[in-house]
Amino acid sequence: MPREKPSYRDNLEMIVSRFPDKTLLTVTDVAQFCGVSRAVAKKLFSFDAPKNYISVAKLAREMS
User: Fold this and answer.
1) How many independent structural domains does the chain possess?
2) Could you give phi then psi for residue 53, rounded to 5 degrees?
3) 26 lies in some domain
4) Residue 30 and residue 3: Cα distance in Å, rounded?
5) What is the pTM of this model?
6) Residue 19's domain spans which residues?
7) Whether residue 6 has a cis bond before it, omega within 30° of 0
8) CA distance 46 to 49
9) Would you say residue 3 lies in a domain?
10) Which end of the chain is more exposed for a tag (fewer CB within 10 A), N or C?
11) Which pLDDT belongs to residue 4?
12) Beta strand 53-55 with 24-26: parallel, antiparallel or unpaired?
């Protein structure tokens, strides 16, 4: 079983503290959280098509 990266828990904690009631985030949520444009957020992270959502856990994993 693969081990999680050391920064995964820290990233997860930051995201959950910013979005405590959400499990799925939009492109706009992620762009504002990361301080980038929507276009850059779409390029950096793999959002699920066609609704362009990403789970909090997946975002934390991809940020690690």
Assistant:
1) 1
2) -115, 155
3) yes
4) 25
5) 0.90
6) 8-63
7) no
8) 9
9) no
10) N
11) 85
12) antiparallel
**Distances from the Cα of 6 to the Cαs of 19, 33, 55, in angstroms?**
21, 21, 19
**How does pLDDT run across 17-60, given as a tens digit for each residue?**
999 999 999 999 999 999 999 999 999 999 998 889 999 999 99
Token pair recorded at residue 47:
């959002």
- The answer to whether position 33 is within a domain reads yes
- Residue at 58 is within a domain: yes
Token pair of 22 as six digits: 């959400």
Secondary structure of the chain in HEC code, one letter for each residue: CCCCCCCHHHHHHHHHHHCCCCCEEEHHHHHHHHCCCHHHHHHHCCCECCCCEEEHHHHHHHHC
